[in-house]
Design a protein that fits this description.
This protein is an alpha/beta fold. The protein is built from 11 helices and 13 strands. Helix 1 runs parallel beside helix 11 and helix 5 crosses helix 7. The longest helix has 19 residues. The protein starts with a strand and ends with a strand.
């Protein structure tokens, strides 16, 4: 008797599975949802899975080693830090992700933080909510006089550059050798320290790797301008959290906007939650109705291809190398 096809879902970030069911059930693929995403539970379930579909759950080597039937691991999202890629390669299991489904959302979120911090929005709202109507003592700087520095100039960095240019900001960037599209006017800085010392807002748009882990530390923060703002909508581990707290408390830099943190989530009593010059959002930047629908559809269609012994469409997912 032929074993039924199985798609194992480790965890999801939305309600229902209608998109996944619509793609997989007609081709005879059963969907199994893990009751929890602990390594112990996943080790029991992965031996029966033809495809493993993962959101935020961790897939360590001990779990991947048991995935004897897996034809692929599919990540709902761009980052793959929660998947042991070396173990997947060792067991000849390809890993696919969707690195471009939320470019607009993340760029919009970064711009929102830049505008809110530049205009002192949180302080003004706190004043009116407390019954006051006083004007803040510090005057904001006109946005069109400021320079945006992008650390990384991939899809999201470019999307933010376009938005900043419309508002009159000058754009500089580093840690990217790619040729820029004709509609972006930006100057490349020779290195991170130079960029940090020359811009008013520095926004991070890098993957988290061994090379980029804690790339923003006390040394980089020290050379930033005292009125500068740091934005991180990429990966929490890019920033040394303790160094950032010290830089904000000592006024080494003026402000920070973080959608990702290290650790994540932040402990309830963490200092970053309460610093008035720091805006923290709960890893929300990637979310919109359109983005979530898109990533679900693309991963589901790729899973359908894989269980039918087809190569997934590169317009749907990217092979992680």
């Amino acid at each position: 008797m032929t074993r039924p096809l199985v798609a194992l879902i480790t965890d999801v970030d939305w309600e229902g599975l209608s998109v996944e069911e619509q793609a997989l059930l007609p081709v005879g693929c059963e969907i199994v949802v893990a009751p929890d995403s602990s390594p112990e539970t996943l080790r029991k379930l992965v031996p029966h899975a033809d495809v493993i579909m993962v959101c935020f759950a961790t897939l360590p080597a001990t779990v991947i080693a048991e995935a004897s039937s897996a034809r692929a691991i599919l990540r709902w999202g761009g980052g793959t830090n929660n998947i042991d890629l070396d173990a997947a390669r060792a067991h000849h299991i390809p890993v696919y992700n969707v690195p471009d489904f939320c470019v607009e959302e993340v760029a919009d979120h970064a711009l929102m933080m830049i505008l809110a911090l530049s205009r002192g929005l949180e302080r003004q709202i706190a004043t009116t909510r407390s019954g006051g109507w006083s004007l803040p003592g510090d005057l904001p700087r006109r946005l069109s006089t400021q320079t945006l520095g992008l650390v990384g100039m991939g899809r999201t960095g470019q999307a933010l550059a376009r938005r900043a240019q419309v508002l009159g900001m000058s754009v500089r960037y580093t840690m990217s050798e790619r040729k820029l599209p004709d509609d972006i006017t930006a100057t490349r800085a020779t290195n991170l320290a130079t960029l940090a010392s020359e811009v008013d807002v520095m926004s991070l748009h890098l993957p988290l790797t061994e090379e980029t882990f804690h790339i923003i530390d006390a040394e980089v923060l020290r050379v930033m301008r005292p009125h500068a703002t740091l934005i991180n909508v990429a990966r929490g581990g890019l920033v040394h959290t303790d160094d950032l707290v010290k830089a904000l408390e000592s006024r080494t830099i003026q402000s920070a906007g973080l959608d990702v943190t290290d650790p994540e989530p932040l402990p309830a009593d963490h200092r970053l939650r309460f610093l008035p010059q720091c805006l923290v959002t709960p890893h929300f930047a990637y979310r919109s109705r359109e983005a979530i629908t898109e990533v679900r559809e693309r991963v589901a269609l790729a899973a359908r291809d894989i269980v039918q012994d087809l190569v997934p469409n590169p317009r749907h997912v990217s092979l992680v190398k």
